Amino acid sequence: TKMVHAFFDPAQAAAFNALAAKKDSTFDVKYFDLHGLASVPRTLLAISGSKFTSTSPKDWASEKANTPFGYMPLLTETSADGKTTLQIAESDAIERYLARKFDFLGSDAFEEVLVNTFVSNNRALLSAMLNKYFSVKDAELKAASKELLITNNIAPWIKHHEQHLIANGSNGHYIGNKV
Q: What is the rounded radius of gyration, in angstroms, for the C-alpha atoms of the chain?
């Protein structure tokens, strides 16, 4: 099996691009035994109908060095014939790779920008939640942060996203009528 470390090796570009165009690969999403940053990649693989497994590190301290930045998730894709395997690191890169591979980024450049905009806005909300609530240890500060988070971040997010969903015909999708 030829291992292609998709990250940072231009010599592997041809093998990577060939496999990226195929939809019959099998996948493994390596992440801790929780949803976290692997939830979107797993969801994209599930709705695409792909064959995939989810694995957790057995000894993260020793496995950490086998990732480009020391973080997970890590996606491993193996060609249908088993001859080529590639790895992609970082949740955002994995999500966009899978979304492009399985045609979830829209039908043209305009729709792709819209998808990326909604994804970016969702990430901004998640970041605010992490920074303003989940990382706060003091109970009183956490309670105060919760109210501000709801008022200044969550409520406006809901309002804006509801407007975009309504503008697309209230069909449950942000763009068109598919994922």
A: 19
Q: Copy the structure tokens of residue 39.
A: 């939830």
**4: pLDDT confidence band, cut at 50, 70 and 90?**
low
Burial class (CB in 10 A: 0-12, 13-18, 19+), 17: exposed
- Given the structure tokens 């008022």, which residue do they identify? 151
- pTM across the whole model: 0.84
Any idea what DSSP says for residue 36?
G
Q: Which residues, at least 6 apart from 105, have a Cβ–Cβ distance to it below 8 Å?
A: 96, 99, 111, 112, 115, 116
Q: CA-to-CA distance for 168 and 120, rounded, in angstroms?
A: 19
> Does the pLDDT value for residue 150 go beyond 70?
yes
* Start-end of H helices in 49-176: 60-63, 91-101, 109-129, 139-149, 155-167
- Spatial neighbors of 76 by CB under 8 A, at least 6 apart, are 27, 28, 30, 85, 86, 87
The dihedrals phi and psi of 29, each to the nearest 5 degrees, come to -105, 115
Convert the pLDDT of each residue in 46-104 to its tens digit. 999 999 999 999 999 898 888 888 889 999 999 999 988 888 999 999 999 999 999 99
